[in-house]
Amino acid sequence: MKIKNKRTDFNFGKYELRHLHAKPIPFSKLYLNKSVPFKYVVAALCGIIFAFLTTCFIKNTGAFSYGLSSFLQGIAKLCNYFITESTGTYSSMIYSALFWGLLLIGNIPLFVFAWCKVGHRFALLTLTFLISNSLSGFVFDFIPGIEGWSLFGNTTLWCAQETSHSEWIHVLTEKYHIQVLPFSVPEALAVDYHPSNYVKPLLLILSTVTYAFIASFVFAILFIVGGSTAGTDIISVYLAAEKKKNVGTFFLALNLIMITLASAIGTFIPASLACPECRSVEFFFNANWLGTLISMLIFTAIYKRLYPNSRRCKVEVYSKKAKQIRDLLYKNHYVHGSSLADRIGGYSNKKQQMFITICSATELPMIIDQINTIDKLSTITISNLYAVDGPFALQRQGSR
């Protein structure tokens, strides 16, 4: 007689035994590569990629980067105004030299600080990125027409024809090349103000948001190999190590200050000096400033997910070779505590052991790799911990 399955039976379909592979964090393979030359190659490539991103999404649009870079970009814009005012002619090469040169020179004191306080390899990887970024950025500016490259279109103020009412636009854009983009303008300046100018703040914000998504990957990869993008990153890493908190927390606070200063120095002051009519709140709280702030907030949120150095995880390993796994980890200088727990297998009804430990999320790729060298058939479960109260070993950035 055929037995009918009950609603509570698990035999409601076919099962296949598959070996699942854990991918606990992004870029897991990067954590496993310990080759020093490889790290320097990655740092140099990140510098080149980041220079191209900065050219297209920051330099060409009038927005700002993050941290000290944004402040130095503001200084470059202000210096370019005074040079143009004294010579009577705008030079894109002079501006390019100021833009990329100040990024390199302004970070030298922080490189020395990183060498002394953070770590030698961290400092050298950061310097590799910095030199690659500055030199390639300056070289990119020699590409004909690159100043017009923008994903979402031109973000410069424009008017259909020059009149006495729209002369201020030509002074800003044609004479001094000041990249300031207000959301609205005072009534006295609104005459002959082309309607397309009201759309350009949105285009600039879209550009900065796109920049945040792509830049977060570059920053995360650079931090994984042991370097940084210099500037406030170095200060953030140092403070995070001293205060035992997430790097992103300090990065966010320092950036809010730097971006506001950069906007005031690089857009509002030059615009006010070139055109006294621009000394208004509309030109101070401009799209260049707001777009960069939105970009930085999005960047920080994504970056924390791509490089979760402050996240703690509980790892449970079900294996017949739990003791060998523990021995291998400590042989390779594993620093966290662990436990071996006896258990009875519910399926086999046999006595087994389970290896349990708590670690940082960024250590998961190494732990999984070493477990698999002992027992490829082991089952590894990983769970995120809300918090850990007690002693816990934290690796300082720049110490590896």
Key features of this structure:
four-stranded antiparallel sheet, Alpha-Beta Plaits, 2 domains
**Average pLDDT rating:** 85
Q: Into which percent range does the helicity of residues fall?
A: 40-55%
Strand proportion: 5-15%
Low-confidence stretches: none
Structure explained in plain terms:
It is a single chain. The chain is of the alpha+beta class and 400 residues long. It folds into 2 domains: 28-143 and 162-306, no CATH class; 312-385, Alpha-Beta Plaits (2-Layer Sandwich), CATH 3.30.70.120. Helices cover 54% and strands 8% of the residues. It is built from 14 helices and 4 strands. It has helices at 28-32, 36-59, 67-87, 92-105, 108-117, 120-140, 167-175, 200-225, 232-243, 247-274, 281-284, 287-306, 322-331, 364-374, and strands at residues 312-319, 338-344, 351-360, 379-385. A 4-stranded antiparallel β-sheet has the order 2-3-1-4, with helices on one face. Strand 2 and strand 3 form a beta hairpin. Helix 3 packs parallel to helix 10 (247-274). The longest helix is centred in the middle third of the chain and has 28 residues, at 247-274. It is elongated, with a radius of gyration of 27 Å. 39% of the residues are buried. The model has no long low-confidence stretch (mean pLDDT 85).
